[in-house]
Amino acid sequence: MAEVRFYHLTATSLESALPKLLEKTLERGKRAVVLARSEERVEALCSHLWSYSDRSFLPHGTRRDGFAEQQPIWLTDRDENPNGAQYLFLTDGAASERLDAFELCALLFDGRDAEALQAARAEWKRCKELPLEMTYWQQDEQGQWQKKQTS
User: Fold this and answer.
1) Under-50 pLDDT residues of the chain
2) Taking the CA of residue 107 as centre, how many other CA atoms within 13 Å lie in the half-sphere pointing to its CB?
3) Residue 73 phi/psi, 5° resolution?
4) Strand ranges for 18-76 from DSSP E
5) What is the rounded CA–CA span in Å between residue 99 and residue 147?
6) What is the pLDDT of residue 150?
7) Residue-level pLDDT at 151
8) What is the pLDDT of residue 57?
9) Is the dihedral of CA 41, 46, 50, 56 positive or negative?
10) Any bridge partners for residue 7, and if so which?
11) Is the CB of residue 101 less than 8 Å from the CB of residue 81?
12) Where are the alpha helices (DSSP H) in 28-147?
């Protein structure tokens, strides 16, 4: 059964949280797809992953780079899995109809954005109707993740 984790960002931005989650993904020997809502956002995230840290490297690619099957992390604006990823990261309100095709799906949303919060609540309700294991995580004031709910 696929697990869906809702990550409620309250202390850090997506640009701060996503690389850390992707590092953990690679440490576990898994591949990831990061789904964004637009090609422009994909390119912005791609640029960010090249420069977010001078001490770390996250190998990744986009449709523009090609060779999806060779990329441990694939950034896209399409509901696809061309690199055989086990983990899916949904950003910026992106949605997938293929949640059950992954071991783990992480939906990251900005809790300071009313529209993003509403969209995450709607997605929680939608996911409750599916055979998925769900957990809700929220950042504390220091940016540490706290498990708040399991369904």
Assistant:
1) none
2) 22
3) -125, 125
4) 32-35, 61-62, 73-76
5) 20
6) 84
7) 82
8) 80
9) positive
10) 108, 137
11) yes
12) 39-51, 114-128
> pLDDT at position 101, please?
94
Task: Identify residue 68 by its one-letter amino acid code.
Answer: A
Q: Are 45 and 51 in contact (CB under 8 A)?
A: no
Q: What is the pLDDT of residue 54?
A: 86
Given the structure tokens 């640009």, which residue do they identify?
A: 15
Which run of H or E residues covers position 89?
A: strand 87-90
Residue with tokens 């004031």: 141
Q: What is the pLDDT of residues 51-93, one digit of tens each?
A: 888 888 899 999 999 999 999 999 999 999 999 999 999 999 9
With a CB cutoff of 8 Å and minimum separation 6, the contacts of 119 are: 93, 109
Structure tokens that stand for 47 in this block = 């640029």
- Assess contact for 7 and 109: CB atoms under 8 A: yes
